[in-house]
Amino acid sequence: MVTALSAVASSVGAELLQVGGGFIELAVLFLILAAVAGIAGANGVAGLSMSIAKWFVIIFVVLAIVSLVL
């Protein structure tokens, strides 16, 4: 069962990255992970997940502005 779940997760992750980065989707994923970790009391994981989500949003905004200008 674990191998089936990991195969599904890896195919979904590969699909997100092939579409064009999927920075917003990944940012939302890490935001949800941070919220769940914060509720569970894992403050280190929550903080790290929030930092990763913040950087994905920043990268997305920079790339969106660059693509609009060019």
Overall description:
The chain is mainly α. The protein has one domain (21-69). The protein contains 3 helices and no strands. The radius of gyration is 14 Å and the shape is elongated. The chain starts with a helix and ends with a helix.
Short description:
The protein is mainly α and 70 residues long.
Q: What is the share of helical residues?
A: over 70%
- Please indicate the percent range of residues in DSSP E strands (runs of 2 or more): under 5%
Structural class by sheet pairing and helices: mainly alpha
How many domains in all? Answer: 1
| Shape, per Cα inertia axes | elongated
Order of helices and strands: HHH
Largest sheet: none
Count of separate DSSP helical elements: 3
Average pLDDT number: 77
Unreliable runs: none
Q: How many beta strands in the DSSP annotation?
A: 0
Q: Cα-atom Rg, whole angstroms?
A: 14 Å
Distance between the termini: 47 Å
Oligomer: single chain
List the helices and strands and how they pair.
Layout: H1 2-18, H2 23-40, H3 43-69
Helix pairs in contact: 2-3
List keywords for this structure.
mainly alpha
